[in-house]
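Readers of this paper often ask what the protein records in our data store actually look like. An entry from our holdings is shown next, in its original layout:
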Amino acid sequence: MSTVTVKEAAEVQGKDTLLLKKTTVGKGNQDIKDIPQSVTVFTEKQMNDRNMDDFREVLRNTAGVTFQSGETGEEDVRLRGFSLGQAGDIYVDGMKDAPLIERDTFNLDRVEVLKGSASMLFGKGSTGGVVNQVNKAPLLIDQHEASYTYGTGQLHRATGDFNFKTGENAAFRLNAMVQEFDNYGAKQDKRGIAPTFAWGIGTRDEFSIGLYYLESKGRPLYNHPWRVVDGKINTPLEARNYYGLASDHNNTSAQHVTLGHIHRFDDNGELNTRLRYGTYERDLLASTIGFQNANITLGQINGNTVLTRGSKGRLGESDVLQVQSDYNNTFNWGGKKHAVLAGVDFYDDDAKRNQNYPNT
């Protein structure tokens, strides 16, 4: 028998990966080919190359994802026809994320989209699937990066990603972001920072502590005056203009602390335990725009046409405590390869909602 040479490339830590063979969307570090569902992974390099600064921009590049006009003033994101927000199918590092907040990609290593029944792996959710945001983790290298983006609509965005190796198996990583955007009156300003420290990386017991803060202050373009002419929707007013009020706003904030522990057993099993406590807030006040004369014709619309402005407001506050522990392992028995995935999940959401603001 001739000599057989087997070659394998070692995993390289860095930010230049386009293709990933493993995913954590299944509550364990699994090969994508071993998950019997369709999985799409957007890496950090893909998001940077395409300037996907907003979480929704990532989803727009995913087959099977659609956006509807949400009654709450923001898109209703649907995966295979099922609402991600209403079903609670948006996660951060495998733990449920809060609904109705602005999200950003400045601290994301990748976004994993699992299509198909979510209950198979998560025990809850819809039949459309789930989206898991994976935060950047400290690496055992010294690596620093800063970027600045200028775009239309007076967009200014600066980000920084700084990774420090602090010991043989310890590292600290800091990500920060500042963004300002004003598109003819509709605007959004964001500030974010996320420091994370990990020690025991790759050893039997790995620990981590991470903080996350994201604040978004915006003025939304809630709707645009329109009319139905001959069965077709017609928008005779300039689309880019802002038709709301200066007092309109959509302000959200998310802040949480996460403690993590990974224990690796001698038989290659792994127990991943995480505790997260966060507070999330949203304050929306937007104007609904229409024509005062409901019977006005297109030829009658001019600079003196009277518009009507209604108001739509939403207030929401959530204090969320989550504890989650997942065990996964693979073994051979009876000539077959088997996989074990088990876990416990405690979730407490103290939510306050006002769906009739500002009328109350």
Q: What stands out?
A: The chain has two domains: 38-135, 136-360. The two ends are 84 Å apart (CA to CA). The chain has a mean pLDDT of 83.
